[in-house]
Design brief:
heterodimer; A: 14-stranded mixed beta sheet; B: 342 residues; Cytochrome Bc1 Complex, Chain D, domain 2; 14 helices; 2 strands
Chain lengths: 260, 342
């Protein structure tokens, strides 16, 4: 009971503290999925830059401002994953915190477990960590501050981190450093993502569908806010520059296929 | 019966402690959450961090262990000295590794659970997070959380302490932060003369009473009883120290309206926690009060309205107020062996 209350509280706080960037589905009366039988749904993430697979440090890419850049590090949080059926039934994963790290292949698959048997046709999640878990004290696992995704001086998680180099960078050593944090207010780096599937993901106790998801990293710097590395090359606090990039990465994800 | 229970507990605790340094002075009923009569509900409680003597002892051991610093020379207790109400006597700013100087004065530690934020700029939102600040500041402990976890994992001293507190010897940052919060979060100071007078168990001297009346009239809006702070942020008109150019609260919020604002400190045990102000610029209370309310020389656009209106004090009134402030000294807390480095 206590756990359930906590989960409800988390969901309420999580989904009340942030700006909604994507239209949420109309709340329909919940259908009755088979809660007695549950399965797993895997979300596989591939990182691309201008549709080419992201390779760390070795390959040069071009942003919308025509600055060339290389990526040395890419890490971000995905949290509060929800799966939604055509009738509006929503499965909310209880403890739902994932640290995606491009250098760690196993982190690129989010395995959503204990999903009630049903056909799901959309997914909703946060890029970043809900406000409650930014202020709840010492956490563990994906939320362990030892993952270096936590601001000590200004409590809260770094929602997303991209580091690299660019010849056009205004930094004397040509670095580009983007640590996007802040969990409240208009400059929050926490973004809601809502994606519909091209076909339903059929979850059952014996069937684990894979939702292939593409994250376009060039999107961090292109739309709607074109980022010029000569002037915006180090963003490590919450401000209008971090907002510009977070507003961009809010739409970096797309679903390429659902394989049942 | 109670005695038997205490003795039993003591023997259990001492039985678990391999480190002879740790004296078995803590019974289970001696480590508990306290809300003194008439105090507000604390902001931090132990609902997600159950208090135990073993958790407290682990926290204390960590607090006094220089393992948190990159060169293993500086512990939390290096700057937070019990006799100075866990501030740093005679140090205007913190001293870090390699002889580096910090930028801010070490604040006193007491009644931390009522703080709505931590650090002079309030950048830390939860008691459990606070230690990560000095640990990672290059001019304080200059460490990484990862490396501290590794060092403590490799330390045989901690294995029995961790087993006692958490059931096994796995080291995680969460365990370290929670144990430290058990230690710092139970630093309650509520046995000063002021508290005794409030309870009707003591009386002020005539000068203390005059000082208290003046305090209520001129200071208590911000230094709100019974904690002697409202934990809000204010610019009290201190001149900007060019060595630090510390914008205070604005550094956290990014708002120009917060420039050069700092958190109102509690005044409990203030007699013992010199020097004063966020950068330790005042070495005595007389010096502080003589300059505190002049409202000139600082950053005018965000100057606190009360300071702008002016708070005038004669020398006699200052002395009276200081006499009252000395009644906020809590000798029980300052000498409580549970909090001492054994």
């Amino acid at each position: 009971m206590k756990n359930l209350l906590f989960i409800l509280l988390v969901s309420v706080v999580a989904f009340s503290c942030k700006k909604t960037d994507a239209p949420a589905p109309e709340p329909l009366p919940p259908a009755t999925p088979a809660v007695d039988t549950t399965g797993t749904l895997n979300i596989d993430i591939s990182h691309v830059v201008n549709n080419n697979p992201l390779l760390l440090s070795s390959t040069s890419y071009t942003n919308a401002h025509t600055d060339t850049f290389k990526v040395d590090l890419l890490k971000y949080y995905i949290s509060n994953v929800q799966l939604i059926t055509a009738t509006g039934y929503t499965y909310t994963e209880a403890v739902s915190y994932y640290l995606v790290d491009h250098s760690n292949p196993s982190s690129l698959q989010l395995s959503i477990k204990k999903v009630p048997r049903a056909n799901y046709n959309s997914v909703k999640f946060l890029i970043g960590i809900d406000s409650l878990h930014n202020v709840s004290g010492a956490q563990s696992g994906a939320l362990d501050p030892a993952n270096a995704m936590f601001w000590t001086w200004n409590s809260g998680y770094i929602m997303a981190k991209l580091e690299g180099t660019s010849n056009q960078s205004g930094d004397p050593t040509k670095k580009i450093t983007f640590h996007l944090g802040g969990f409240y207010g208009t400059n929050s780096s926490v973004k809601t993502v809502y994606l519909t599937f091209p076909n339903a993901a059929i979850v059952s106790e014996s069937h684990t569908p894979i939702v292939n998801t593409k994250a376009e990293i060039a999107q961090w710097f292109s739309n709607p806010n074109v980022i010029n590395f000569a002037t915006t090359y180090a963003v490590t606090t919450t401000n209008s520059s971090s907002k510009a990039i977070a507003d961009n990465y809010a739409s970096m994800f797309s679903i390429t296929s659902v394989v049942n | 019966m109670r005695l038997v229970f205490t003795i039993l507990l003591l023997s259990i605790i001492s039985g678990c402690s391999v480190d002879p340094e740790i004296k078995p002075i803590i019974a289970a009923d001696n480590i508990k959450e306290i809300i003194p009569d008439g105090w507000p509900t604390p902001y931090y409680n132990f609902s997600n961090n159950p208090l135990t003597p073993d958790g407290f002892i682990l926290g204390r051991t960590l607090f006094y262990d220089p393992i948190f610093s990159s060169d293993n020379t500086i512990s939390c207790g290096s700057c937070h000295q019990q006799f100075a109400a866990f501030a740093n006597l005679a140090h205007d700013v913190s001293h870090g590794v390699n002889g580096l100087l910090g930028k801010r004065n070490t604040p006193a530690l007491q009644n931390l659970n009522w703080n709505t934020s931590f650090a002079h700029d309030g950048g830390v939102t939860n008691l459990e997070f606070f230690p990560s600040v000095p640990i990672t500041l290059p001019y304080e402990m200059n460490e990484t959380i990862n490396h501290v976890v590794l060092k403590i994992s490799n330390s045989s001293k901690y294995k029995p302490l961790l087993i006692a507190a958490f059931g096994n010897d796995t080291v995680t940052s969460q365990r370290l932060f929670k144990a430290l919060a058990q230690f710092t979060g139970t630093m309650y100071s509520f046995n000063s003369k002021y508290d005794q007078v409030k309870k009707g168990k003591d009386t002020y001297t005539p000068q203390e009473q005059i000082g208290y009346n003046l305090f209520v009239q001129k200071c208590a809006t911000c230094h709100k009883e019974p904690l002697f702070s409202d934990y809000l942020f204010r610019n009290i008109g201190l001149s900007i120290n060019p060595a630090y150019n510390d914008s205070g609260r604005a550094h956290i919020t990014g708002n120009a309206s917060d420039r050069f604002k700092f958190k109102t400190p509690s005044l409990r045990n203030i007699e013992k926690s010199a020097p004063y102000a966020h950068d330790g610029r005042y070495s005595s209370l007389t010096q502080l009060l003589s300059n505190h309310f002049t409202g000139t020389g600082g950053y005018a656009p965000t100057l606190d309205a009360q300071i702008q209106a002016g708070i005038s004090l004669t020398t006699q009134e200052m002395n009276d107020i200081i006499t009252f402030l000395n009644t906020l000294t809590d000798p029980t807390f300052l000498t409580d062996k549970r909090f001492s480095e054994n």
